[in-house]
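Render CoA ester lyase in 3D.
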Amino acid sequence: MRTHPSALTRPLRSVLYVPGDKPRALEKARTLNADAVILDLEDAVAPEHKAAARGNVRAALLAGGWPGPVFVRVNGPGSAWAADDCEMARQSGAAGLVLPKVEDARTVTALACGLPVWAMIETPAGVLNAPAIAAVPDVAGLLVGANDLARALRTRPHPQRLPLLHALSAVVLAARAHGKLPLDAVYNDVRDPEGFAAECEQGRSLGFAGKTVIHPDQIGPAHAAYGVTPQQAEEARAVLAAWGDARAAGKSVATFRGALIEQMHADEAAEVLQLWEVTGERSAH
């Protein structure tokens, strides 16, 4: 198994979509504390604005000054804009491509533009072929596109996403099996912070690494759900201390607050502390 380097270099608790045809939104996105940004040339941009949006995104990328990685969601292969989008992203220093409606591994390998690919799984075929897609070396992660997926499956809206749970878990399973990052879908109602927070907690419980977001107000709650609190960091340190004492005594298990712990618990605690060290104060707020 080969793990793409970009899948492991930093946490992606929040990944903000920004329309490429909105210069003010592009400029504001620089000032926000999202872990990463997706400059969108696809669904958020009408056909008559595609060329102008590509120019805006190119200028934004070349200007630099972004606090985290910047990805470009290109138009899908076979569209009139795909080739120009991909070449612009490559030449302008994008950290990766977000490729919409990926349904098989061939779609990714045919792209071959030299950038990490974040494959959007938003069709039934994409879910069924997610393991093969995640196995492609150039794929850094899988993103769920729940709106298109729900439409294709003919599901009804559900506050706990019950009709989509199988598909969501399938994406997580495929990504994790190949050492890639699974990112959860956007939450459409920006006026419903409670619903958004609940969906973030659900996504974290399902195994997602972070949440794609569409509004600045969603960044903080995503960080809270996918980050580490000071209390969690302190507990992780205590677990590692107990484990270290046990190993020093030649034991293969230890007791921590009445529960048995072993190597996997120590590994999990180490991951928690690593996330805490990278995100620091932002995870506590």
